[in-house]
Amino acid sequence: MNRCLFLNCLFNSFLLTNGVHQVTQLLDFLVNDTEYDKTLRPNFGGPPVDVDITMNIDSLGPIDEVNKNFRIDISFRQKWKDSRLRFSRFTHSKEVLNSGTEWNKTLTLSHDFLKKIWIPDTYFPESLNASKQDVIVPNVLIRLWPDGSILYSARATVISKCPMKLSDFPMDKQQCSLLIECYGYTIDELKLHWEKGNDSVSINKEKATLAQFKLESLSLTNYTLQFSTGHFSDLELKFYFKRDLLYFILQSYVPSTLIVMCSWVAFWVNRDGIPGRACLSITTVLSLITLIGSTNSKLPNVSSVKALDIYFALCFVYVFGGLLEFACVIYLSTVEKAAKNASKVQEAKAKEYLTAVNANKEATILKELEHSMFSLPPQVAKGGESAREQAVQLLHEYKGFAETKMEVVNRKRTPTIEKRFLTASKIEVFSRVFFPSSFFVLEFIYWITYYFQ
Fold first, then answer.
1. Tens of pLDDT along 100-143?
2. Which residues contact 170 (CB under 8 A, 6 or more apart)?
3. Residue 211, SS3?
4. Which of 129, 368, 439, 450 makes a 20 to 30 Å CA pair with 412?
5. Rg (CA), the chain
């Protein structure tokens, strides 16, 4: 039994060795330097070579807004037909296959085989950097079919340009394209095609997750580009991205809104508490400036105005407006206090004369009547009345006149303050209503304009 097992293993080893020898012999014959010229394309002098492209996206991102590019890791597959490598014609040839047996199997070959055959000169025209994966060995797959069809698959990392329009940032949608082009062969010599149409690119969306973007869809296009050297075949893989807004809501919109709302607290603080109110107003302005600076430092310097800039400007107007409102209230309060103090001084002077009359300080008042700021009554007693009687009569008349002047002063003093169009109290009441209501109305218009467009 052990002898039979040994003979069986020996026979299988012979068949395996014989098969490997046949394949080696076949490949050596196909790429023989006298029969195969790798510098010439298939169908040289005839119809163009059709190269079918398929792709699997292994990972996607990140997308760099500052440098305006994106990174993609792909398994890039090219398939074409080279009739010079068709080995089905040798299936019964004892010249090539010593055994003369039929050989119709697909051959999977090493990456070293690429050095012996012609391959398309496809490249990524808008790539900033591109490289093949070669850890631990070059990630290359070569398959050869009996009819001469070749599949060349390789893993590559490409960093490609991605022009961006940031006017709607951070509620923007971006389109990034990966272009595939033939460098040297015109469309009369080589044509690129998406092998399976719109299904030629496969992607695992779980592996293609991005920090700030969501992949909405992708599209495949093939067209012809014209250069001074001729017309060339071109393929385009376009990605449609939508930015995830949650990060910016938490990092920019919510903090700036809260800063604006904090500035409104000053409207309810007693205007006599100047230090505390000034500290609150100035702190909100400085906090918003710091937030704007830290946010813009992470974004590219573009000439266009971004949607986030508009929101920051809106917040800054309201915060700075609160500071100006505080200055106006303090100024008007000072003016009102000065007017009130002046009125009190004027009233005190009038009361001083009334007190003098009530205390019967006739001699003093008679002496002061000549220099009084009030006008004397036109009546002056004459005749046989004594000077004392004239003075007493004059005092009674002056007392009534002084009381009349006092009433006039009191009537004029109050309207001077109350009949002002702008007062500190009116501005305070107006600000408590106007600032919050107008801000939320403008914010509603802002979100309608940018988010739901």
1. 445 567 888 988 898 899 999 999 999 999 998 888 888 999 99
2. 243, 245, 247, 248, 252, 306, 307, 308
3. coil
4. 368
5. 48
Residue type (1 letter), 348? A
- Quick count: other Cβ atoms within 10 Å of Cβ 329? 22
Amino acid (1-letter code) at residue 301: N
Please give the C-alpha separations between residue 94 and each of 98, 144, 148, 222, in angstroms, as whole numbers: 5, 21, 20, 45
Of 252, 194, 260, the C-alpha closest to 222 is: 194
Q: If DSSP codes are grouped into helix, strand and coil, which group holds residue 185? A: coil
- Cβ atoms 51, 190 nearer than 8 A: yes
**Torsion angle of the four alpha carbons 160, 163, 169, 170, in this order, in degrees rounded to the nearest 10:** -20
Residue type, 441: V
Q: What angle do CA 417, 419, 420 make, to 5 degrees?
A: 75
Q: Report the half-sphere exposure of 371 (CA within 13 A, side-chain side).
A: 4
Tell me the residue length of the chain.
453
Tell me the C-alpha distance between 307 and 289, whole Å: 17
Going by pLDDT thresholds of 50, 70 and 90, the confidence category of residue 240 is very high
Burial class (CB in 10 A: 0-12, 13-18, 19+), 363: exposed
pLDDT digits (tens, 9 = 90+) for 241-298: 999 999 899 999 999 999 999 999 989 888 777 888 888 889 999 999 999 998 888 7
DSSP conformation letters of 20-48: HHHHHHHHHHHT-TTT--TTS-TTTTSSP
